[in-house]
Write a structure and sequence with these properties.
Elements lengths: L1 E5 L8 E6 L5 E5 L4 H12 L2 E2 L2 E6 L4 E6 L3 E2 L3 H10 L1 E2 L8 E3 L9 E3 L5
Bound molecules: iron/sulfur cluster (SF4).
Length: about 120
C-alpha cells in the first residue's frame, strides 16, 4: 500500500511517498529533502503525533493562548481539548507557565504562550 503525505515539519512542504507492508510497517520513504522528513513520514504512518494549540479561560474570562510543550499522540487530541476546556488560570500569567502538568500521562505539559495580566 502506498501513502502520499505532505511533510509539515518545515514550510518547504516536501511531498512524501511511503510504501507500507501488509502489517502496516514502513518499507520505504521517498521525496524527503532531509532526515526530519523521513522520520515524520515513519511517525505519521505508525504513531502520528501533534502539537496542540488552544486557549484556556482566565478567571476574569479572558482567553489565554496555550499549547502542548511537545507533541502528543494524535488520538489523544479530543481528550486533550476536554482537559484544556476544563482548566482555568489566574492572571497574571507568563510565557512557559504550566497550566496542566503531564497531560494525560503523555509527559507533555500545557503551557502558556503569551504574557497576560
Ligand atoms: S523533508 Fe525536510 S525539507 Fe522537506 S518539508 Fe520536511 S523538514 Fe522540510
Amino acid at each position: 500500500m502506498t501513502r502520499e503525505l505532505t511533510c509539515i515539519v518545515c514550510p518547504r512542504g516536501c511531498s512524501l511517498k511511503v510504501e507500507l507492508a501488509a502489517n502496516g510497517s514502513v518499507e520505504t520513504v521517498e521525496g524527503f529533502a532531509c532526515p526530519r522528513g523521513k522520520q515524520y513520514a515513519i511517525d505519521e504512518c505508525t504513531h502520528p503525533m501533534r502539537t496542540v494549540t488552544s486557549t484556556v479561560r482566565a478567571t476574569n474570562g479572558d482567553p489565554v493562548p496555550v499549547k502542548t510543550s511537545r507533541t502528543i499522540p494524535k488520538e489523544l487530541i479530543f481528550d486533550c481539548m476536554k482537559e484544556i476546556n476544563a482548566a482555568s488560570v489566574t492572571l497574571p500569567v507568563h510565557i512557559g507557565d504550566v497550566v496542566i502538568a503531564n497531560l494525560l500521562d503523555t509527559g507533555a505539559d500545557i503551557i502558556v504562550t503569551a504574557e497576560r495580566g
